[in-house]
Amino acid sequence: MREAVPIHRIVVEARELFREYGYEGASMRDLADRVGLRPQSLYTRFPSKESLVREVLALTLDDTLAGLPDPATDARGAWRTLIGRIAETFEARGRCVGLHLAYGVTAQTPDAQDAVRSFFARLRDAMAEILEAGKAPEPASVAADTLAQLEGATLWITTEGDMGPLRHAVERALYVGDLGAEPR
Amino acid sequence: MREAVPIHRIVVEARELFREYGYEGASMRDLADRVGLRPQSLYTRFPSKESLVREVLALTLDDTLAGLPDPATDARGAWRTLIGRIAETFEARGRCVGLHLAYGVTAQTPDAQDAVRSFFARLRDAMAEILEAGKAPEPASVAADTLAQLEGATLWITTEGDMGPLRHAVERALYVGDLGAEPR
DNA sequence: GTCTATAACAAGATAGAC
DNA sequence: GTCTATCTTGTTATAGAC
């Protein structure tokens, strides 16, 4: 009897595929190959390819937000850690799964579309909460703008391997999160 | 004998499909349906689906840059017109074809990948040229950052229909292009 | 240039044995 | 939980008539 493949492993590999190839470009066959299963065996763990989107984004949100410093006592540290995590992932992987899925899922997969919307809304809200705890003005708007700038910078990583725009986006992000800290 | 379908029409419809569904998600059958042809007839006009990427992006670059004010005599006007065109397209269509293709084409379609890289490099260079004519500092870097910020803002249009981040990105873009104009 | 017909293949998903 | 086998559909692309 063969060792059962951990579900976490499947979701992690699915994330790699979605990030690199997008929703349409990722196939259940490729995923099965990566985890050493037959394609059909995936369907005993997940009802459909579409359902993988929610799993992938739930894992990613958890990776991003778990164990952050408490915004109430260390808003600046929470902000810097969060921005750092996002930027590190973009640098290491070259792109964002969430953005690829945001562009890649359509009304034909409404559950996946909802999962994407929910993912970004939660991430933005977590960012806004930190900014608010740090007494930054317009936290919701600034959170959305900051996330957009980080995401947009992945364009240059993907097309040219240029990390410059991401680094600039990180600098701007750290600056807006510094309000309330000692003056510079 | 039936009227021949203009090639421009096919490329325009291909652009809509690529923008909405991405490279993998767009099918030659869908494209054929849109222009009123059989899928097979497309192959007398284009050697492959991959070749459409270059055509679509060439058309888009032309739409974006054609007839701009001369940067040498009106850098501020050229910049404002260019940013306005990009932003209008993003607002009207909700997303950017170029970004969808940047994420969506892989090493398996190297010609398409090169077309995407070339598209963004040319657009950035055109923006940098305008900034340089307007005596803005670090034109190449600022051009790349500006384009990244506009692109990133489409995340919120796609997921939530929120135009706020795009409008903020436009404001920042117009600000950096105002250097050299009368002080504010 | 467009058509009909078809090739050659890969996709997501299901049934039932072990 | 994983397997073999199979179904159904959709994909890009080609051959040849008109």
Please, could you describe this protein's structure?
2 copies of one chain form a homodimer. Chain A is mainly alpha-helical and 184 residues long. Chain A has a domain at 53-176: Tetracycline Repressor, domain 2 (Orthogonal Bundle). The first copy, chain A, has helices at 7-25, 28-35, 49-65, 75-93, 97-104, 110-133, 139-160, 164-176. The longest helix of chain A is centred in the middle third of the chain and has 24 residues, at 110-133. Chain A binds chain B through residues 20-25, 95, 99-100, 102-104, 106, 116-117, 120-121, 141, 144-145, 147-153, 155-156, 158-160, 162, 164-165, 168-169, and chain B through 20-25, 95, 99-100, 102-104, 106, 116-117, 120-121, 141, 144-145, 147-153, 155-156, 158-160, 162, 164-165, 168-169. Chain A binds a DNA duplex (18 and 18 nucleotides) through residues 1-2, 4-5, 27-29, 37-41, 43-45, 48-49. Chains A, B: Residues 4-64 form the HTH tetR-type domain. Chains A, B: One of its GO terms (molecular function) is DNA binding.
